[in-house]
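User: Assemble these into one structure.

Assistant: Restating your components, then the assembled model:
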Amino acid sequence: MSAVALPPFWSLIERHGDELLVHARRLTDDQTAEDVLQDALLRALRAYPRLRHGDHLRAWLYRVTTTTALDVHRARRREVVTDEPPTASARGLVTASLAAVEAEYDDGAFESLIAPLAPTAQAALRLRFVDDLDYDRIAVELGTSPEAARQRVSTAVRTLRERVSA
Amino acid sequence: MTPLSDAFLDRLASAAVREGLADAVYTTLATPIGPLVVVQGREGVLRIAFEGEPLDRTLARVAAGVGPRIVESDRELAATRDALSAYLEGDDDRLELPVDLSLVGGPFRRAVLETLHREVHRGEVVTYGALARQAGNQRAVRAVGTACATNPIPIVVPCHRVLPASGRLGAYGGGPERKRVLLALEGASVRDA
């Protein structure tokens, strides 16, 4: 039982599930996106009762989806190198990294993920996926137009994807 | 934006249950007494809500009681759905579902509802006073009334079978009309109010 009042998990999926699938597609491809999202939501479910507060849950789900997508990418690259049976190995790696993700509410996994990016790209991703701001607010923070803010976040996501799938 | 498919949501909910990650599972069921929200916990049925009670509020209270990892799945609750449907449609005269009394506050209320579930069978009725006695405190008639009024699992824990000493219908959380229909379904006779 949680010490804080967290909303029923399914209400989060009803509210944010569609946009998370879109996010997973941007990070992977259409075929993989549903698998990634399922893994991400199971990870989130595992960690959910240990969250210390119920703020920014949408941003938290974005971060879990992002790190899961990148874990799957890494797992697949490793498969190519080691020539192991693909699905088994991908699954294994995802499961093995669960413990790390469970502690993820402190954003450690997300921070190390975005660390290689340029500072401006990191800032844009943090405003979007940690602070959970909309593009109008991100624009104010970055001193740009909302359209430019959207561009910057979307470019940063693309860079992230290219780095891991390269 | 492409919405998540029902198939995806089904797979997700089943995986969550399989991996022990669900504190509770819920489903919505159409019945002759209106749609029901049925919530099942690890031990059995936790909560049944009649139409008119907002789903958000029902689930928020379940979350506060047993944990927030609540998922929706018709498939995972298929056996419970079938049993309730068959009973309420009159196709089966037994309703043997395990219950989980985690949402019941206080030991006496729990004793009342356990006694009611175990001992007052289909076709029978009991007065508040008699139920107080059976639950071990014959003077706690008012507390029995409270236990029934706050029963989280109506129908399965049959508070509709508890009547005032007058033999009249009395109160019911789901409204007197549902109480009358349930008793009629079970062949119990009630004096008209």
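The mean pLDDT of chain B is 93.
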